[in-house]
Amino acid sequence: MNWIADVGAKALSIVSNLGLAGRFFAILAGASLRALGRFSLVIKQLYAVGVLTLLIILVSGLFVGMVLGLQGYYTLVSFGAESSLGLVVALSLTRELGPVLSALLFAGRAGSALTAEIGLMKATQQLDAMEMMATDPVPMVIAPRFLAGLIALPLLSAIFTAVGVIGGYLIGVQQLGLDSGVYWSAMQEGVDFYADIINGVIKSMVFGLIVTFIAVYQGYFAIPTSEGVSRATTRTVVNASLSVLGLDYVLTALMFGEV
Amino acid sequence: MQQKRGIDFIVGLFVLGGLAALVFLALRVGNLSSASVNNAYHLYAEFDNIGGLKLKAPVTMAGVNIGRVTDVKIDKEFYTAVVELSIDANYDNLPEDTSAAILTSGLLGAQYVGLEPGAEETYLKQGDKIEITQSSLVLENLISTFVTSGAGGGSAAQSNSNADEFE
Description:
A: mainly alpha, elongated, B: alpha/beta, 8-stranded mixed beta sheet, disordered C terminus
């Protein structure tokens, strides 16, 4: 009969964790505004979070675009509609694949590193040492990383989409012989700047917020042992990926639902 | 300090790259620009109806792409569509009685302009007008002609040449 009590304890801990996350978010938001004043700290984190993630984004974007070009072409050619290949590639990248895939890659590459770094700082009592010197670690350590993630993901996602469109061009036009004017003109005809591109950028801003917040939250509240840090890193990747995919459905329904 | 400046520079490049990707998306992928054929000369053709012809649609001769549609306007006097064709300067020997037709690739594919060469000895130059044109087939008009005239005499009156209207 112990399991009934276990269910109750589990539910209570989930609710109180949510409350803790909400309180932490409020503190972090205030600290981030103050961290804007120390922008050199943010730039250092932008290097770690953004520039070092660039390579995986470029390579994946190129290959995703090439696969879209190939699959789209073979599907469309059986309807004689291969002239809309550019539209298919561009719409799937700007609306869905660009923001979602770069957020997933970002969670795996940068989010896990953030959690491990902050968790190890805690495990080696660096954060405690800062508090001993009357320095609050949240605006000094956590907020610059949070801001860097917020700024980096929309940029990475735009790069992913642009490289993907070029990948589709390489396959569709250079290799399969579609006319390059048809590729670009179908794209420009069907992709709307505000409805598609700006909405994709908004999506990636929301994903940047949620992924980076989960990463710094898990790092800051990790159990300060090697096992605790490794578990927190795993939880970051799993929770961030699930949140991105779930939120993507909600955002898509809100943005494109009325069309 | 030197090390720090290096990081600043790389981060600056990263931010610039992201913004450049956004500009690329806006101008090349989105609908905020228009491109042109290099080394082209322009011809004009008037059509009664251009159907779904779009800017940048290909211009072909014998199935080979030789140019693009660069502008579509309405002639305010005759209410016809004036289409500007940019033809690659390599193909500067189109006979003067060349005819233009708006065709469709595949059943539901994109529309393009097909040129049919004539037999004159003189060639079309920059700014010339193609006199013999054939409009696009509008499916609804075709069906209504077919329905109202009975199944027997269903000739597609839509696609007449309008060459002599403007002599």
